[in-house]
Amino acid sequence: MADTQFNWAQTKQLNPVQLFIAFAVPSAVAFTGFRFVLPALYAGGMPAIVAWPIIASIMLLCFTIVPLWLMNREAKELGISLKSRMCLKPLDRRQWLFSVLLLIVGLAVAGGAASAVPLWIDISGLSVPEYFPFFLNPTVDPMSTPIAELTPGFELKGAYWLIGLMVVTLFLNILVEELYFRAWLLPKMIGLGAAAWLINGIAFAFYHTFQLWLLPQLIPLSLMMAFVVYKTRSIWPAFAIHLLVNSLNVVAIAYLIVA
């Protein structure tokens, strides 16, 4: 099949109720997994740093398969390749430069917003549950906290297998967020006009109902990634930046394990 360019205007648009369901279902599944299943496993004696990636990987695998199936079916209907429908459109140097600069700005704003997280936690009354791993707790500095306090009841040092588990989990996280929320869902929102990327970005940030204490950081980066995909019609830049950020997280955890 010829790799015909995917025209976003040709894809079936979702109405407001369908859009709500499209965001609400994965949010509800994630909330159930991280706020009910995770604490149950933690209470049963499984360390948070082990339970979290296991639960996340199972849920993320399902939400990777779903958009691939949906996009493959739609690609056949539109007479285009799956690659085109996945919004894997090649970009020229100018488009890459534009995208990377915007995403770096988004990362910088999100990084700067980290200082607002403690204030947001105080104002909102949110708190980080003890059954969440340390790397999702913005009040914990893993480099200055004794390693025994980072993972109570679990010997982090020397747990090399955990690096592989985290790699799988964080890569699946990239696939889900780029394939489902941006490659599959965003083109189905362009009927909303210029507000499509704005609504997509905000709704994606609130998809993280299981960790709303990170909202000050999630919103600017979510908006910037949605905007870049909307403007370029490609998920490649968002995928690349996402991969870089998650790789740094893996490296940080690996350092604690190996050092």
From TrEMBL:
<feature type="transmembrane region" description="Helical">
    <location>
        <begin position="188"/>
        <end position="207"/>
    </location>
</feature>
<feature type="transmembrane region" description="Helical">
    <location>
        <begin position="158"/>
        <end position="176"/>
    </location>
</feature>
<feature type="transmembrane region" description="Helical">
    <location>
        <begin position="49"/>
        <end position="70"/>
    </location>
</feature>
<dbReference type="Pfam" id="PF02517">
    <property type="entry name" value="Rce1-like"/>
</dbReference>
<feature type="transmembrane region" description="Helical">
    <location>
        <begin position="20"/>
        <end position="43"/>
    </location>
</feature>
<protein>
    <recommendedName>
        <fullName>CAAX prenyl protease 2/Lysostaphin resistance protein A-like domain-containing protein</fullName>
    </recommendedName>
</protein>
<keyword id="KW-0812">Transmembrane</keyword>
<keyword id="KW-0472">Membrane</keyword>
<keyword id="KW-1133">Transmembrane helix</keyword>
<feature type="transmembrane region" description="Helical">
    <location>
        <begin position="237"/>
        <end position="258"/>
    </location>
</feature>
<dbReference type="InterPro" id="IPR003675">
    <property type="entry name" value="Rce1/LyrA-like_dom"/>
</dbReference>
<feature type="transmembrane region" description="Helical">
    <location>
        <begin position="96"/>
        <end position="121"/>
    </location>
</feature>
<feature type="domain" description="CAAX prenyl protease 2/Lysostaphin resistance protein A-like">
    <location>
        <begin position="161"/>
        <end position="247"/>
    </location>
</feature>
